Amino acid sequence: MSEKLNCTSLETPRLILNGFSENDFNDLVRIALDLNKEAIQGKCKPFVAFYNGLNGVCDEKKTQENVRIYLDRVLGKTDTNDDKWMHCYAVREKPDMKLIGLAGFVFFRDSRDKSIIHHDLGYFMSLRFQRRGYMLEAAKEVCRHFFEQFDLLEATMHPENKASSSLLEKLGFRIVGIDEKSKYNGEPRLKFKLTKNGFFHANKQAG
Question: What is the mean pLDDT of residues 124-147?
């Protein structure tokens, strides 16, 4: 049986973290279009699951298709095999519950040893709500909840994504290596790890 995270709703001073629904599709498309346009202009690294700008053009129809595929994964309609599964939180701003991002985890079995399960942190935030500390607030809360059940968390990040690397370091993650040609369009990825003790130590100090 696959490991499962108890995905109860979470709350922070400014955010509600809960499940996605079909009603989130249009908001996800708007977020994806904004992120893709910024990535095409070189202002940020692309969120690979949404990105379609390899030809230098943001294709709205293709973005919608990518969001549809991604939302189906988040809702558990696909990736239902025993080798890969997702536990994702919708990040919603109080008080109107507007969808502004995602924070969650991909669980997957090691390609060589199926008895080993990796737990990867993933996230994105609407451009309209960045630089307000929302992503750190959400990521800190989902990590706190994760470590109530598990002891080790991983993450990967493009080496040029300085903002995201900074966020991981604030959570307590440490770089453990680099994948020069990753599964993400063959781009390089820094590899991070975070232990339960490391998370609570880092965030006790930060608090």
Answer: 96
